[in-house]
Amino acid sequence: MHFASTRMASPPEPGPYMPDLPAVPAWLNKGDNAWQLVAATFVGLQSMPGLVILYGSIVKKKWAVNSAFMAMYAYASTLIVWVLVGFRMAFGERLLPFWAKAGPALTQDFLVHRAVFPATAHYGRGGVLETPRTEPYYPEASLVLFEFEFAAITLVLLAGSLLGRMNIKAWMAFTPLWLLFSYTVGAFSLWGGGFLYQWGVIDYSGGYVIHLSSGIAGFTAAYWVGPRLKSDRDRFSPNNILLMIAGGGLLWLGWAGFNGGAPYAPNVTASVAVLNTNVSAATSLLTWTCLDVIFFGKPSVIGAVQGMMTGLVCITPGAGLVHTWSAMLMGMSAGSVPWFTMMILHKKSTLLMKVDDTLAVFHTHAVAGVLGGVLTGLLATPELCALDSPIPGARGVFYGGGVVQIGKQLGGALFVTVWNLVVTSAILLCIGLFIPLRMPDDQLMIGDDAAHGEEAYALWGDGEKFDLTRPETTRTGGASGAAREDTVEQRLTSMGARGVTIQL
Hints:
It is a multi-pass membrane protein. By secondary structure, the protein is mostly helical. It has helices at 2-9, 30-58, 64-91, 108-111, 140-159, 168-190, 195-199, 207-225, 230-234, 241-260, 268-296, 301-315, 324-348, 350-354, 361-379, 382-388, 404-432, 441-446, 448-452, 488-494; strands at 94-96, 99-100, 122-123, 129-131, 473-477, 483-487. A hairpin with a 5-residue loop joins β3 and β4.
């Protein structure tokens, strides 16, 4: 009895179940925090390694290293600029209607406190507070990481327009400048409490902030950088279609974090968004593939990946705000409208034919992003909008929202388009004064070896090259001392190159 009383009176042992853990403040929801970190990781996997693999495999062999490295560099450089000043320019206290105050996200005092969007409080007529500012139930550090992944993938997507000819040094200078002067403006305007956010433009998870901006900026940059070599434009077949599919698969599955993390909590909206994302992607892929079969007689695997991409992009502005049958309609539109602009309209437009948009980012992201934004303005339901939108009574046209919502969607798209066109042009023109934007033609003929001194595939050994100028056979001494002739295949086998195919 005495022993039992002593145990009951003893202080609790330190451990994870103490009532007041220093690392678990009262406002912290462990489930919300865990999901946001997982969602951030999913989005990160879309870039690293998803788009790195996709870019390295969808281009010609001679551009595999350069294309993958452009994506990798953009990802790394974005993180450093983001924590130095970028995050608070996009999600900090209001400075201008389209920009927040710059500041670092590097200290304990800032990162361990509860996350907050300072400028997101919405006031109605007469200055009455209608929606309080957004304050997720996890630390600022989790929010900084999550929003970084969105910023990084925007620049990685933009790179798709410039593969196969941009001077890597110019790209290294471009990425931090574009992040600061373009991305942060769109992010604050639409997500951080800026004028488009307060006006009621709906962009659930980045149809405008990420995809429209990357598509317009990529197309604009492609214009200023200039085209690839004519031989590359005429024939730019993938060097590894299977790896391209693998990269596309990482992109698809990673979108669960992309749209599932947008509500900043694992709530009902997140569940609807993840389901709608997959339904739209699948529907768009099937639609694109069917159109390829109808008009070209066979399904294109590259086309299927593009269809998957447009379906993911199109649903993004409204993933958590529409019915699943609406997501299917959006997928059908995403698989057909960008297909038409890419396969039909592109070939009839002098401007589109002139600008060398390597991976057609304009069609797969800008066109699909605007399409998704407009369809969201039509199909967003009042019940789901009430769970996520800061504007009371927000809804699509088909649910009584009136044509004014379409006007807002188009107005938001116009602002993002014009801003990216002007700012991207200004940045590249300034860089071009000091660094050539395009590699010289003699280096473009070589590719990776000229740009990096490295190549993607070695036939054997440590990057040794097989000398095709040597005779088809060579004479060597046999075991008995007699001379024998070895074929090319025998020489390769003796060098440890079994199973290697050489294209002569």
